[in-house]
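Following the same procedure, sequence and fold were stored together, as reproduced here.

>
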Amino acid sequence: MSVVTNTTTIGAIELPSRRNTELLLLGFAVLIPMFAYANVGLAINDTLPPGMVLYGLGLGALAGIAHLIVRRYAKYADPLLLPLATLLNGLGLVLIWRLDQSGRLQNLAKKSFGTFSPSAPRQMMYTALAIALFAAVLLILKDHRVLQRFTYISMAGALVLLILPVVPGLGADVFGAKIWISVGGFSIQPGEFAKIVIAIFFAGYLMVKRDALALASRRFMGLYLPRGRDLGPILMIWAMSLLVLVFENDLGTSLLFFGMFVIMLYVATERTSWIVIGLLMSVGGAVVVGTFASHVQARVNAWLDPFACYATSGACEQVGQSIMSFGSGGVLGAGWGQGNSDLIGFAANSDFIFSTVGEELGLAGVMAFLLLYGLIIERGVRTALAARDPFGKLFAIGLSGAFALQIFVVAGGVMGLIPLTGMTMPFLASGGSSVLANWILIAILIRISDTARRPAPAPAPSPDSEMTQVVRPS
């Protein structure tokens, strides 16, 4: 005798979206900057700042809009990326407002330009515009794999963005670096957007060519050296980074582009030789350009010994003031609003805003900010690991690598670890181009993570599998 049982097909199990977790973290990401804002007001004026509630409501409204967009159009996205970006952006607004209260900076602006214009309200406007772009990316970009179609178009677009600052009548020379364009009274830094556009080209190109770059090589002294014709891509990117360094005097963008390509090349091929070749080429190019470019020489001299040329070079004075800011901060810092990083001058709220963190929050605050940045990078790398398509993997690792390199070159420059690059600290520094580009970067990572974490659709039911007879002996 036998027993016949009927079984039916079971659909895919619904995974948690983690949107409520994201909403809870966003609450903390808004409250922490509000407490910091109150702390600055109490330290400077012995009273709560009058705009604290309005600031909190504005930041909360922007975070709420971004959350609703993610909840509706990227349901399974990583729940940490949006709160981390919101927290850093909110604390950046507090740091910029704190520097706006400096009497030294106000007098310096009046002496140089005849009037003082606070940067915090303008930065809040840029943040609102950045959230709008964040929402637009998630609304328009339904699938990141669509960008693969624009591999070579993106290369052309990146080249155009890099060339614009050196076009006569359009580019602007700011403190020796030609990285800005002026349009209708507004200044834009195209290089911030070029890092995203060129990552599309790198991901699309390496996805197609990775086998040739990885397998066709010769072994020499433990390293797999590529064929001469396979060196073409890296030579082209190396030459482009040198041209940026020569014509725009922009060391940061040059390091960012070449470093991002080497990282993506290593991930695509798993060949350590590419890292060695990339480092040798970057050092060689920096030595050659540093020998002839006076702007780069000044920054190298300021890095080697800022106090030797403190009285004669603006770069040396800025680096020296920055080092003293970090030194006077100690472990716990002087406290919000009680430092003197405004002595650095106009760069205090852009290139050197991290010096304010070092002086007023100390080593503990610096490590906390670096941990927040590290979490964004870690979630980006995790997104790359979880992506199901090679283009998404390379694109996510490229964006995460670019973000990590920018943190390194900015923090390393203001701390004296490497020569000053002139780039801005993501989300913290004053500047519309930086905050716009980095919110677009976060939106793309959220889109890739949503695609990677979204459960696969249940297979269509087959008539043969609707009911299966299982015969068991009695």
Notes: Residues 146-455 form one domain. The first strand starts at residue 2 and ends at 7. Residues 1-12, 466-470 have pLDDT under 50 and may be disordered. Residues 29 and 86 are 6 Å apart (CA to CA).
